[in-house]
Amino acid sequence: MGHFETGCRVIGSSRSLPVRPRNYLLQVCGEALPPALQMGTSRPAEKGLSNLQTPYLTLSPRQNPQLVTSFLRTVGSGLRSEVEADPLSLSPCPQYSHFPVRCSTMPGGRWVPTVKWLGCWPVVTHRPGSQRTSHMQSFLFLQLWMGSHPRGDAKILDNRISQKTLGQWISENQDCLGSKVKDTFNGKLPFLFKVLSVETALSIQAHPDKELAEKLHLQAPQHYPDANHKPEMAIALTSFQGLCGFRPIEEIVMFLTKVPELRFLIGDNAAAQLKGSMSSDSQAAASALQSCFSHLMRSEKNVVVEQLSLLVKRISQQAAAGNNMEDICGELLLQLHQQYPGDIGCFAIYFLNLLTLKPGEAMFLEANVPHAYLKGDCVECMACSDNTVRAGLTPKFIDVPTLCEMLSYIPSKDRLFLPTRSQEDPYLSVYDPPVPDFTVMKMEVPGSNTEYKVLAVDSASILLVVQGRVTASSPTAQKPIPLQRGGVLFIGANESVSLKLTVPEDLLMFRACCLL
User: Fold this and answer.
1) Prediction pTM value
2) N or C: which end of the chain has fewer CB within 10 A?
3) 43 an active-site residue?
4) What domains sit in the chain, N to C, each tagged with a CATH number?
């Protein structure tokens, strides 16, 4: 697919800039980790890291070369206070309206570096002088954050602007949000836009509703950093595998029959109750499902390790003998156990729906729906929150009692979320979930077109270019802005943007906004 050029521009109007008050462009300028910070990866991506002379650093791709990444600064768990990367020397931007900023991209796992826009390669860092372990190297997933959440707010580096972050800029330029968005969400950007690249499974998790989020934030702000809910939607960029919502009861009962190690952990009484609920009403089925899942997740660690070892040995032996073990998700079970040995989350595959999304397909995760992302690349949009309740497949803080209590125990097979085609724009598909915080638009423009008009909406929006090359122009921009793979525009409310295709290549873009 070729590499992914990175960058970010911001379009809109401003009352507070010291120059050109009705025109601004905030440009992302890369910033590399200093040579002192050792980088680790299970793939040969370290060559050249000891002699960084440029903010642009190409890493080896996971499978297909896709993106060019630029390391910015270290943030997050384990590195926030211990290591802080100094920015590289950046030459002054020639236009007064161009300003370098830092933006956050965070791999999950124990050690967290920041990487520039769309660096969808798995990387792992460790503290200088610390021992790197294969367990640490196994955490291979990356999150690109596009928004103004305090944990991933874009940093404005140019000292000619008084505001230092995008969030600060928005707070002093409220009109860019749109009148309805500004009033409804108290002057805050209500959504967080991400790109995820997953090679190692992300945790078994769910996100709280607003009432529970407020309670958790008061009780444990170190684990639940804000008081907002976090409904979210994932749209596949590649083949994307995930777990989402509870399977139909009959499927779980079938696994309890075929996987005796699972039944041992749950117990005969809870298993019998679940089987009996198949002929009961939905409330009885939900109660039986909660009992079964809670028994599993609260199992003693040593018992889990023992039973999981027995299951892994049985599947491995059967597979070596040429037997197909897909009826009990054998390949996936072995994969998860290799990534998270002895983890209770490995058994969750027998309770949760396994989905494989094709590019463009989506799943929507409302509050209290259990899920896990297993493998692939996606764009993700959510309410502006970082609240996650975890219970497995993670080295992070887990909260099993809260998760088991909060979950929505409603079995459902169909978890695909379908977009609707726009009546006004034949190239536009709209993913409009049943929450007010965000909507995502997908634009697929044939390369035979020479120009494309981005519809003005009464909301601030973030536009991501996934494929193609264009120049963007706007009434508030002094000159056209070149964009290619990885280019990002923050567009103020009611701003119209015209894109001119500069090469005869199909254009693929995603846009996050808030349509009230």
Assistant:
1) 0.79
2) N
3) no
4) 248-350 (1.10.441.10)
